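Thread: Newbie trying to understand structure tokens

Hi all, I'm a second-year student working on a class project, and my supervisor (Dr. K.) asked me to get a predicted structure for one chain before our next meeting. I've only ever worked with sequences, so writing a 3D structure as a token string is new to me. If someone could post the tokens and maybe explain what I'm looking at, I'd be very grateful. Here's the chain:
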Amino acid sequence: MRRHGTGYLRTNRRRLVGVGLVALLALTGCTSKAKGKSADDAAKGSVAAVTLAPADKAADVAVSTEIGLQVSGGVKVTSVDLTKADGSKVTGALRADASSWVPQEPLDYATAYTATVAATGDGKTVSATSTFTTMARPGDDIRLVAEPRFDGGMVYGQAMPLVIEFTNGRVADKDRATIERRLFVTADPPQPGVWHWDNDIQLEYRTQEYWQPGTKVKVRLGFGGLPLSNGKFGQRDWNINFSIDTVKRVIEVDNVSKTLAARQDGQVVNIFPVSLGKPSKPSFSGNMVIMSHNEKFIFDSSTYGVPANSADGYRTEVQYAERLSYDGQFIHAAPWSVADQGHNNVSHGCVNVSTENAKWIYDWVKIGDPVIVKGTEQHLDQGNGWTAWDLSWEDFAKGSALGAAPAASAAPKPS
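---
Reply by user tm_fold:
Sure, no problem. This is what the structure looks like when written as tokens:
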């Protein structure tokens, strides 16, 4: 069937304030606040320097701000302390490239903070301090939903992508890199991964290959208070934890043979006859992912504008349904098409199997398992569901606003 339940997952810098304090140190190795040395001197290594942002006495700072860091003269950042006026400390971590220190949570609105940074190297020690105040709570925000769900702790199939959808506004091209830099993914064991923008409201994250069995994934969507170019701000941060199953499952559907093959850890464990979409409403070919599975589900053509009581309309309850696309292609039990299964395509786009076979599939699969459909008249559109695996790794990485895919996790390292 087509276009059932279209509402699924569709509930539809201010700035780092400019360069701040610079503490300078003569190469005697003594701690001091040397004066009269130029930036050129620092660049040549005659002085050690650490520069941080926001600048001292900066106001109206975004609560998503990071402590920007620049060092020279052979020193490296060794500590970052961020405290509120009451003395309470903020926890955080350095980015992998040490370009900034990222608070673990958004800062409080309308609150004063003091950042103190120390850097050492070659017998030299230098520090800098900045006190700044964050902005008042904004009145206009942009919201998101995500998969996996925020409650966390679930176990998913090997192809499970991270999927973010912005529900009350579209993202301008100029904001994409800003948003990506605030999306932190840490995998154990580490695996290269990258974000890809399907369109201006959805982006997905995947690894180069399917997740390794047993992978533990921690995600921070550091969106709270993030300023965007349209004057809106991210509503809040989200944290997601999930795991990948130790068993690798793949479903392969072939329109030529009209069969569905279930593979587990590389071996075929079952083959079922299927009926796919008729020529006027073909099933999609492509690399898909099981987005949900329901013991019972109601297909209703009125959800996409075709009255259920019209000639092309329907309202049918089905059993054992696994969603493959936003516009309503599923694998599901279809006892009415058993005679055609393995021979003729008669569905509205879904993969029809018998009730007994649908029950076996339902009990076997997990959300996040890959489904590969071959040989139909129409290919899956990018963004119509979780389509991260329907592109090559190279093409998928091109959809990132940050450029080439990283060699490892982009998450900050503990300080």
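A couple of things are worth pointing out once you decode it. The two ends are 52 Å apart (CA to CA). Residues 1-45, 407-415 have pLDDT under 50 and may be disordered. Feel free to ask follow-ups in this thread.
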